[in-house]
Amino acid sequence: MLRTAAALAAVLLLAGCIPGEPVITPEPDPDATPVFASDEEALAAATEAYAKYREVLDKIFIGGATDLSQLENVATGDQLQTESDAFAEVNERGLHSSGGTTFEVQELQQYDAGASDGKSIIIVYICENVSAVDVFDQSGASIVSSTRPDTSLYEVTFDWATKMNDLLVSHKELWSDQPC
Fold first, then answer.
1. Does the record's keyword annotation contain Signal (predicted)?
2. Taking the mean position of all CA atoms in its chain, how far away is CA 86?
3. Distance in angstroms (rounded) separating the CA atoms of residues 52 and 136
4. Which label site among 24, 25, 126, 130 has the fewest CB atoms less than 10 Å from its CB?
5. C-alpha closest to that of 129 among 110, 106, 113
């Protein structure tokens, strides 16, 4: 009987009959003033913050990663370190790009209305499209693989930066290796 129930659960999961994970909205601290009035407002702010982040990253990469001064205006914590390390390698190898990354926010995964300065406040799923991006080595030859996927789905975390009164990308992780 237990085997049958487990098998049925597995079949339902694979068939997509089990509903997806709900948006997690932690209970806010009663003394905290929410940063955003609603999930929709939080998602709009995350979309705007991610647009700034992508714009800065594309500008840095097109320029050969020689000026990283704007990174701190769009990223923090682990993601700031990840981007700094990646661009140090880009600069060392003499790489640069052309084109730009586009994206589409897929879904709000979590909004914590009670988060305070420097804490994760919003997590979203974002589909990035790099089909217009080419990467060149020092000789000007493209190094983009013909098998590079055009799109990738990421889970992106934003922290609230009180001093900037803005969201900063604090973590970005590949969520699925399937095109989105």
1. yes
2. 16
3. 24
4. 24
5. 106
Evaluate the CA torsion angle 41, 122, 48, 144 in order and state its sign: negative
Map tokens 């068939």 to a residue: 15
CB 107, CB 152: distance < 8 Å: no
CB contact at 8 A, 49 and 172: no
Reading the chain (180 residues) residue by residue, the pLDDT tens digits are 333 233 323 332 223 333 445 555 455 455 557 788 899 999 999 999 999 999 999 999 998 888 888 999 999 999 999 999 999 999 999 999 999 999 999 999 999 887 776 677 899 999 999 999 999 999 999 999 999 999 999 999 999 988 878 899 999 999 988 889
Spatial separation of the C-alpha atoms in residues 67 and 142, rounded to whole Å: 22
Instruction: Give the span between the Cα atoms of 34 and 25, in whole angstroms.
Output: 12
Q: Give the closest residue to 138 by CA, choosing from 98, 172, 94.
A: 94
Give the whole-angstrom CA distance, residue 87 versus residue 113: 33
Q: Is the dihedral of CA 98, 100, 101, 102 positive or negative?
A: negative
Spatial distance between the Cα atoms of 22 and 152, rounded to a whole number of angstroms: 22
